[in-house]
Amino acid sequence: MIKFFRRIRQNLLTENKFSKYLFYAVGEIVLVVIGILIALQINNYSEHNKERKQEVSLLANLANEIKLDILQIENSTRISTERLSRLDSIVRMLEDSSNIEKSSFIEKSFEFVIDQYFKSNSGIFDEAVSSGRMSFVQNEELRQNIFDYYRNASESDNDGTTRQVTDELITPIFVETLFINPEGFSSLGLNVQNIANLESIDLKALKVNKDFWKMVLLKFGSNREQMARWHEIKLQAEDVKQHIEQELGNLK
């Protein structure tokens, strides 16, 4: 093809047809420019398709990641609800404290110092942000919703507050009111009756112990507040996941 154009150019110069040569030269330049533009268009189209495939992959992975958050919240909520139900039953055992087996009561009460915590599965999102791949998400509203969700899920201090309440308030009261007695040590397999001068736990007195009831109040209050916060995060997660799935439907 190049030899063909070169031959035409040489013939025009040989025949001293400068005007025709000039016209031909301009036409050749136009063809070259058109060729470059076509090549650029093909390259842009190829790059666009590549980015759209990466966008679909990213959104699909984010949807799966957020689904794991939803499942985690549902599971943690179920476990926490069941724990509070068991603790409620334990507290109600004090209505007839004379029939309570003390060591068993203390062992069951250990759940006062156990909590569930939510940690967002943000590995895909964190990597996409650090690598700049979040820019592949063309839908600006969706991209902002995704950022808002992960910021809300990670910056929540609700679990931190619950942990602090348990560690700094509930645990000391638990140890003082339920554990520092022969039955408490016995629940750990330690017999200190002939060593420590400790009185047996008085379950009847526990019923009027304000510190004990403060512990009960803190436990139920902090855990229920925690679950309410989880519910808010779950609703936002479900909304973002649905938005992502709609966008995937549009892209495919």
Outline the structure in words.
This protein has about 250 residues and is mainly α. The protein is about 75% helix and about 0% strand. The chain is built from nine helices and no strands. Helix 2 packs antiparallel against helix 4. The longest helix has about 80 residues, at about 20-90. The two termini are about 40 Å apart. The relative contact order is 0.12.
- By DSSP (H or I, 4+ residues per run), the number of helices equals 9
Task: Let me know the average pLDDT.
Answer: 85
Distance between termini? 41 Å
Helix content: over 70%
> What are the low-pLDDT stretches, counting only 5+ consecutive residues below 50?
none
- What is the rounded Rg? 36 Å
What percentage of the residues does DSSP assign to strands (E)? under 5%
Main beta-sheet strand count, sense and barrel state: none
Descriptive labels:
about 75% helix, mainly alpha, 9 helices, about 250 residues
